[in-house]
Amino acid sequence: MTEKTFIPGPEQRLAFREALGCFGTGVTVVTTNTPEGPAAITVNSFASVSLDPPLVLWCLDRDSNRFDAFSTCEHYAIHVMAQEQHDQALQFARNGFDFSHADWQPDDDGRPRLTECLARFDCRLSARHEAGDHLIIVGHVETVMHRPGQGLIFKRGQFGGFADLI
Ligand SMILES: Cc1cc2nc3c(=O)[nH]c(=O)nc-3n(C[C@H](O)[C@H](O)[C@H](O)COP(=O)(O)O)c2cc1C
Fold this sequence. Notes:
By secondary structure, the chain is mainly beta. It has helices at about 15-20, 65-70, 85-95; strands at about 25, 30-35, 35-45, 45-50, 55-60, 75-80, 105, 110-115, 120-130, 135-145, 155, 160.
């Protein structure tokens, strides 16, 4: 395979995405409640920010048809997806307003809780930062759940699992 070096810009959008895709991540689904019902979005821009206070972030695409739902919400839940939740992560990437395939329940603040996830961070909005074509959303984590299991991985545009080196 040939090596590519370039200055990112409008002409190099795809190449820039390819380079970013070399960084393997976990996969999360962020959910919130809206006046029209529950909304979800599959997200791999999730990152931890601070332990004290407990803060996490994710980045929301300004072009998304879910922008209004997520850019203004006060309460949302970030679900770290398990390997066996691959189909659900794909479904929520395609459609954020159809929950018919999901097993979920609202918590006391209305956040839709998906069952079977590996970890869940129940957040209250802490800050929003403009960042180019995305909005950085920082949440204060109010409750955490996690369980043993294998996480879903995303790298170079593909879903997969985690393989130990040895
Ligand atoms: C693995 C994966 C990671 C994604 N990460 C993000 C993300 O961090 N932020 C984001 O806004 N959209 C992300 N998306 C895209 C959304 O899940 C969704 O596909 C997109 O918003 C669809 O466009 P729509 O919202 O206009 O329907 C990701 C999609 C996939 C499959």
